């Protein structure tokens, strides 16, 4: 317990579970992949044509995927809470 009477819920870095380690590994793999793909790329989406660094396009797609997963998991958690 801490001085204010609450239990400390923070775990040390080595006390993480398998899901956290897999997540950390995937983030590191994504950063490595993005770092190695720095060339220019032409991105076509519907009527939009943009020339951008490939790392930026990969980062944006990664963030969109993360946001989609976060939104879906948030809805699932709410559904479980309701029963």
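^ structure tokens above, recovered residues below v
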């Amino acid at each position: 317990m801490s001085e204010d009477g609450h239990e400390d819920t923070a775990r040390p870095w080595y006390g993480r579970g398998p899901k956290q380690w897999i997540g950390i590994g995937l983030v590191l793999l994504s950063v490595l992949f993005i770092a190695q793909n720095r060339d220019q790329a032409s991105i076509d989406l519907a009527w939009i044509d943009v020339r951008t660094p490939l790392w930026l396009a990969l980062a944006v797609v990664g963030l969109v995927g993360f946001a989609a997963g976060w939104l879906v998991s948030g809805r699932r958690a709410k559904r479980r809470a309701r029963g």
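The chain has a mean pLDDT of 79.
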